[in-house]
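User:
Care to share a sequence and structure tokens?

Assistant:
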Amino acid sequence: MPTSKRLNVAVVGATGMVGTEILRILSQRNFPSERVIALASERSKGLTVPYNGSQLEVGEITESAFQGVDVALFAASGDTALM
């Protein structure tokens, strides 16, 4: 059933090849997002990734990072996904 709700989306593994491709496709297809957040491991925290003509700052994967997130797309390695 179609909805007009705009979703809060998290992309986990956003600094990797698959994560950056997910961000590109979300932008290209005008995914109905209210907010998109980029998450990755601690070592990538603070980096930026391209999204929708601008840059998203990468946050660290923590339980609190998912607060308010409606959809999480995981493109992280096994070790990172287990965090």
User: Anything to note?
Assistant: DSSP finds two helices and five strands in the chain. Residues 13 and 40 are 5 Å apart (CA to CA).
